Amino acid sequence: MKIAVVGATGLVGSVMLRVLEERGFADNEIIAAASYRSVGKQIPFADRKLTVVSVDDAIAMRPDYAIFSAGASASRQYAPLFAAAGTTVIDNSSAWRKDADKPLVVPEINIDAVGEYDRIIANPNCSTIQMVLALSGLHKRYGIKRLVISTYQSITGTGVKAVRQLQEEEAWHAARVVEAGAEVPSQLDAMGEHSQAYPYQIFRNLFPHGGDFQDDGYTTEEQKLVNETRKILRDPDIAITATVARVPVVGGHSEAVNVELLEEFEIEDVRRIIADTPGVILYDDPSQNRYPMPIMSEGRDEVFVGRVRRDFSQPKTLNMWVVADNLRKGAATNAIQIMEALLRR
């Protein structure tokens, strides 16, 4: 079998290659594709080196699957060309998620959304994947009426440039000796614009901004949580509101989720349903300070859920805290799990 990774030199692309190796695909023909400026570069995979080829060359090689992490514009340009060559595309960008005729898939929930002749499959946004997986059992049992979501998203969701910005800011601040009470200059004064992934310092800071602002005041990251949750759970009537924050964390995304259900519940039944959901770990014991954190999710494929408790301010409502590695289950692992599910089918 031939598997192409498009965007193989990027942050998510490198994790895709790692997950392919971990999940037993190292003996297949792996095609590393990227933009023309990366063509010819050697990148490690399993016990060998892969030579990066252009996307056009990858199409000509007619892979069975092409897993994309190259951005929406590249996906719109190249995914149809792969599909026309008979390749099944699993795309990690936002290019196809809202298309009614393109399945948007978390395999534990809705792999059945992929039809026999579907050749372009959308991988959901990272913050959506972990949340809907944690909620899927509750939605099936009780139905969900409304979600109020606050996310605390890792800088790795922005990419390599954001990681470099945090590292440079941390190094710059560590090298300074600041007198007590002195104003710390903004990193924008010390670093060139080429280093900036964000409009503000992220080291020792956070800001309520992920994606691009829309005319209604919400961001595209917040809107994705609304649109994608309804599509994956197949329920357009769920009321959803979200606020996205970017935090100086590398390990994964965290989410505080307030869930209003359609039916009354017992909290122990809720905990059991969450614990029984494939791919989810209930990590929740306040008496022992046991709750999910990004540092424990980094490098893991599971979604961790904790702080499960009733919301006493209104009926049929609960709160939970959801954490996952946004580069793995939130991106690379989910895409490869889609491929695995299709192979089994």
Write the CATH fold name of the largest domain: Dihydrodipicolinate Reductase, domain 2
Calculate Rg over CA atoms: 21 Å
**CATH architecture heading of the largest domain:** 2-Layer Sandwich
Shape: globular
Strand order, sheet with most strands:
5-2-1-6-7-8
| Tally of helical segments | 10
- What percent of residues are in strands? 15-25%
For the record, give the distance between the C-alpha atoms at the N and C termini, rounded to a whole number: 16 Å
Annotated CATH homologous superfamily of the largest domain? Dihydrodipicolinate Reductase, domain 2
- Helical proportion? 25-40%
Number of domains: 3
Describe this protein's structure.
The chain has 345 residues and is of the alpha/beta class. The protein folds into three domains: 2-124 and 331-344, NAD(P)-binding Rossmann-like Domain (Rossmann fold), CATH 3.40.50.720; 128-158 and 205-326, Dihydrodipicolinate Reductase, domain 2 (2-Layer Sandwich); 160-195, no CATH class. It contains ten helices and 14 strands. It has helices at residues 11-22, 55-60, 72-84, 107-110, 126-142, 160-175, 220-232, 267-275, 294-297, 328-344; strands at residues 2-6, 29-34, 42-45, 48-51, 53-54, 65-68, 88-91, 120-122, 144-153, 239-246, 253-261, 280-282, 303-310, 317-324. A six-stranded parallel beta sheet has the order 5-2-1-6-7-8, sandwiched between helices. β1, α1 and β2 (29-34) form a beta-alpha-beta unit. α1 (11-22) packs across α10 (328-344). The protein is globular and about 60 Å long.
